[in-house]
Design goal:
The complex is a heterotrimer of chains A (257), B (287) and C (354). Chain A is mainly α and 257 residues long. Helices cover 74% and strands 0% of the residues of chain A. In chain A, α3 packs across α6. The two termini of chain A are 28 Å apart. The chains are: A mainly alpha (257), B mainly alpha (287), C alpha+beta (354). The interface between A and B is large, with 90 and 91 residues.
Amino acid sequence: MIRAVNLIMLIVVLAPVVVVMWMSLTPTAMFVLPITQFSFRWYREALSYPGFVDAFFLSAELALFAALITLALCFLAVYGIVRYRPAGAAVLRSFFTAPLLVSAVVFGIAMLQFVNRIGLYNQFSGLLLAHVVLVVPFAIRSLEATVRAVPEELEWASMILGRSRANTLLRITLPLCARGLVTAFLFCFLLSFSEVTTTLFMTGPSLQTLPVRIYTYMSDRIDPTVAAVSALVVLVSLAVVVFLNLLGGFRRLDSQG
Amino acid sequence: MQDRRIPAPWLFAAPLILVMAIGFVWPLLQALVNSLHPNTPQGIDVTQWTFGNYKRLADPFYGEILVRTLRISFAVTAITGLLAYPVALYLARLSPRAQSLVILAYISPWLVNTVVKALGWTLLLRTNGVVNTILLQLDIVSTPLKLMLNETGVVIALIPGHFIFVLLPLWAAVSGLDPALSWAAGTLGARPSAVFWRVILPLTLPAFVAGLVINFIMNMTAFAIPMLLGGARNMVASMLAYQVNLITLDWPMGGALAVTLLALTLAIVWAGQKFAMQLAAGRGLRP
Amino acid sequence: MSLEIVDLVKVFGAVRAVDGVSLSVASGEFFTLLGPSGCGKTTLLRLVAGIYPVGQGSVRLNGRDITRAPMHRRNLAMVFQSFALFPHLSVFDNVAFGLRSRRVPRDETRERVTEALALVKLDAMAERFPAQLSGGQQQRVALARALVVRPDLLLFDEPLSNLDARLRDEMRFEIRDLQRRIGITTVLVTHDIEEAFVMSDRMAVMQAGKIMQVGRADEIYRSPASRFVANFVGPINELALGGIEMVDGRRRALAAGALRVWLPQSGGMGNGRTNLVLRPEALRVAPGEIGTDNSFPAEIVDVVYLGGNSECRVKVGSLQLSAVMPSVVAARLRPGARVSVGWDADDGVMLDAG
């Protein structure tokens, strides 16, 4: 019986994604069911629709920078916490994971009002800042496991042999964390790429990321073009997920979100 | 270590702390400050301070929205809770490889953005969508069901979206149980259902409750799915926030909404965590 | 309640964890499954308990076929290596668990639980929780919980491995004592030879899913059925034999290609190569003459003090032998000294070289 429940849940979880991909292949301009013939014409439409293309590049650029910046900041912070075990470590950790508790909506409102206050409304830098903050909790979790996996003895050995802490960090610790860093990067990239709510709240028509662009398109009409671009988004996301899984990146998701 | 004026760990953490202070703390404070000023047609009047925005929230109009938000969230969380245990139990009995695969299947859709999923649900649930087409073809109904632009559609679409927030911690808890506990209960005469109710459930309840709480607040603060599947006539808190902040542009009110929503969700999380800890303590478990 | 296992087989993937095992345990007997890790002893126990479904074969408890019976209907009880106490239940509720599953009325439950706790000397701990107990106390609770349901069969899965050495010794005797008093048929799984010897009436030595030998401790130690068994239960000296012949009604052979030895009266005439196996304590080492059937001149290589006993390593030609004797005797021996080493023919065992 519980096998049945699992099957139902899997179907329910995968259904929307599968449907989008299936429907995007409709040969006609309407979603006439059942769709038995397949056509890629809407993909060509989607890829030539400037709104989507621009939005894609914006999203990709945003995700790239957000992931890189977050990685750098969080790696340093995590290193400091894990190696030095300062007294306020628990507090710091809570602080860094606080964005999870402040929902995307509340944060979106706050960022909206904030960027306007400091004159960064509809600017890439403001949006970048928001995405960095949103992604930090995940990066911290992931990187903490990564850094902990590097035995401290290796660093002591290096320092006893004459290298400074900074040099050790660069030459010993960092390379050993390579896989974990790549994993964290991909994860953060994907999260930023998929971010909707906060971005929606704090940007206007001139700075639309891909999810936001899809959203505004959808509020207007539902057609195969938007299904096609969504299907492409799914493919990109799944590709990253598969790659992440190969790197063993999902083993750390035991603790709750 | 060398003697430094600034302790080393804080040096390492400083850049992140700075970014968080500017990008997280300041915006929240800004919203809070804005919420305490009155709004005027010329903009926010920063010379005056008032609680008026908060007082306006007592209006039944806002109450109705809150109740709807709570109702939807509660329905989603309740159904999720019922479904999570069977799935977690099933998962825990699979081989490690199968477990990774199934978990991957559950996580992958979560990483696809919620708007795409909303599109999927629209295509599934609308009047001439996949579900209705199948139901009509199989003669299970004679007229299409109204599964969209109402609360039902929102609930249906929200369930899978936030499922893993309960599934993952619950699965971890179930997997983490000493298998000998189930064996001991079994050899002592407990039927498999009794083993679940008397051993597995009590021991995994704290993790379950904690997961449900997170799931609940994610439901409370969802935006894209309620907006696209519920529509303007089924307004929830996040949609109201959108309206106030981006359409009416009443930022003091918007700030008040944000602060209230935050306070509410934090209170729920705090209460939930406390409850979970008490459950754990009462069972001699480490929380 | 006797236990009868016939041709039991259990396969996990490509591994035959239990490969055609048959044995009988008499009512009231304390029987041990002994073997190295991976030999299948724990799997066998779990098959009897019903934790794993049986592949082939049958399990009968007092004549009743329980092979396909679900775990909760077999009326046996098991004590686990991790104790498996329910952390969310008090000691009392832990012990009462089995009674409540059997719907025993409340008064009787209370009576029997109190009795069981007194039996394991934990009366004062009824309201405590497992996390508050020491390892030894948890063990006793696990024991009480198993005994209170009056099972037909009591199973132990390496119950003492999680305890420190001194506690282990104590518990061995307590468990054995308790078992004798109550008279319950018991099967214990362990890899610890001393544990098996101290506690059991009979034991089975297992290897690679099969039973190598069944018998009492002294039978297994003195008359091992195979090289594996001999080596597993204690250190041995092994001498390859060749040219076995009969001389005046006694058997003789060339050991290790160098020594002419008198062989034991019975045993080992297999087709393949045969080894002569000697326990270290069967060897006598002394300066001058020793009166054993076999004796050879030797030189002492080393004397190692082990406490009550000492190990004495001697060289006979190029062959090294290990002897064990009380330290008071070994005290007179010095490395480099010329001595005689020897043994009585019947103290040796002839086994297939395998």
